[in-house]
Amino acid sequence: MRISKKVKFIDDYRRDKANRYAVVLAGGDGTRLRSITKAIAGDDRPKQFCSILGEETLLDKTRLRTAREVPSENTLFSLTKKHERFYDRSLHDVDDQLKVIQPEGRGTAPAILYSLFRIAKINSAATVAFFPSDHYFSDDHSFMSYVSSAFDMVKTNSSSIVLLGIEAEMPETSYGWIEPAPSLFGSLSKAVVRVKQFWEKPTAGVAKQLMDSGCLWNSFVMVGRVDTFLGMFKKHLPELYRMFSAASKLFGTSQENAVIRSIYDWIEDINFSSEVLEKCSDELMVMRVSNVGWSDWGDPERVISTL
What we know:
The chain is an alpha/beta fold. The protein has twelve helices and eleven strands.
């Protein structure tokens, strides 16, 4: 009896891991950090392909971090075609089917939606975590333990999308903020509560109030089932959803590039945060993350401060 229970536990664990997917968002141009990256690399490469701290690029570091909880064969990379000369080297050992290559950058919404339909084609029961490729953590192990807890949360409540909110250390005005709904245990590390509201780049005075009231920095790391994410797109960006849904029938064929090119030629930049997340804040959950040494390396001042 004990042996059968142990075997079942192992089978459940393997099945759980097999359904865990990740998307590393690495398609941005990183123009705000160009002064530093050009000085380091000598060319115009985006920051995620630059070795800013140590020998590894930010993309390399994100890959290693993600691999702590998600199998490498389940990790996709959202990229932009014009950066091919930079990511070819970093991702030389990654299967082409795991590279979601956009013909042009059109904002975070198309990048995320394209990746979701790619995963849905592989495993419709998948739970996926999204990771920006230009973030810094002083403690990868601790941060990924939060990500693992978010996966467990979604497994328990399949309709949930869990955002990872970083406990604020200063009234930062250039970050997005998440205001959690009031909760008895909401101030505890790893507490998961409903999202009340998003605040994008507040003034100094508002940022101070947000920090004092226990609001969190938005890391843009989020975990949820593929079908839940797709449902959000279908509701809030229905036309974009219909285009990618129709195109997905050709994913994995010789016609995929052509049909994606036609979509990207037609659409304009679409921001996932403002056009999707902020419109369904009451349907989202946020997990309080502390003591991971996080920084969004979006501008030179933050990088210099971290270094």
